[in-house]
Amino acid sequence: MPISAKIRMPLDIAMTVATLVLMGGNYFFESTAVHEILGVVLLVLWAVHITLNRRFFLSLFKGRYNVFRILQAVVNCGILLCAIFLMVSGIMLSNHVFAFLGIESGASFARTAHLLASHWYYMFMSLHIGLHVSLIANRLGLAGAFKSKAALVATRVVAILVAGYGIYAFVIRGLWKYMFLQQPFFFFDAERGYLLFALDYIAIMALFAVAVHYVVKLMKA
Predict the structure, then answer these.
(1) Considering just the CA atoms, what is the radius of gyration of the chain in Å?
(2) What angle do CA 84, 89, 93 make, to 5 degrees?
(3) Furthest-apart CA pair in the chain: how many Å?
(4) 182: which of 9, 64, 75, 219 lies 20 to 30 Å off by Cα?
(5) What residues contact 151, with CB distance under 8 A and at least 6 apart?
(6) Is 81 exposed, middle or buried (0-12, 13-18, 19+ CB in 10 A)?
(7) Which tens digits make up the pLDDT trace of 130-181?
(8) Half-sphere exposure of 18 (CA within 13 A, CB side)
(9) For residue 6, how far is the Cα from the chain centroid?
(10) Is there a contact between 118 and 22 (Cβ–Cβ < 8 Å)?
(11) pLDDT at res. 143
(12) Which residue has the higher pLDDT, 133 or 72?
């Protein structure tokens, strides 16, 4: 097995975990430097991810497009666009890692762009996971387990329940407000705690992933 195939799953898991932690803003750490360093780490992981999947981007303007390919292109290009905005706005806001650049203007724009891009990035990333559920199952060696009707039904029930809670979490956490600039600053509900924050955001991820997974299944039916 080539090394590129071996590192794909650990790379994707690392990117997902880093994104979950970063979604908590600076509230998880006493120093904002940690958030900045994790952001740089995610950027490096993204560079590796794009390099491994460069064929997709090189083929964007080749061949015919069906509905699935359009959806895939929108999701992947949406992630890339959000990642670029996150990188640029993060550099502009940096007080540690990129402080040597001496950027003193545009902070208001950068904060708005960072808040907006981070939540759209999270949504696109969740959709991206949903588009590759079957591939992920194969890489984890779970494809065979789903041949059992009971296991398949149980998996679907759990997925629907988690996604159902994800709707509640999406509303209670106010993600739609950030995505459409109805709230200009990130609010961390300390009363709900860090663990519940992570569980809520995982459920939200599952919501979008499950939704797009079944949409694609309907397309191919």
Answers:
(1) 18
(2) 150
(3) 60
(4) 75
(5) 145
(6) middle
(7) 998 877 777 766 655 556 778 778 888 998 999 999 999 999 999 999 999 9
(8) 20
(9) 21
(10) yes
(11) 59
(12) 72
AA identity, residue 105: S
Length of the chain: 221
Instruction: Answer for the pair 212, 125: CB distance below 8 angstroms, yes or no.
Output: no
Tokens at 37, concatenated? 């360093």
Q: Report pTM.
A: 0.91
Of 83, 105, 74, 79, nearest in space to 92 by CA: 105
**Residue by residue, what is the 3-state secondary structure of the chain?**
CCHHHHHHHHHHHHHHHHHHHHCCCCCCCCCHHHHHHHHHHHHHHHHHHHHHCHHHHHCCCCCCCCHHHHHHHHHHHHHHHHHHHHHHHHHHHCCCCCHHHCCCCCHHHHHHHHHHHHHHHHHHHHHHHHHCHHHHHHHCCCCHHHHCHHHHHHHHHHHHHHHHHHHHHHHHCCHHHHHCCCCCCCCCCHHHHHHHHHHHHHHHHHHHHHHHHHHHHHHHC
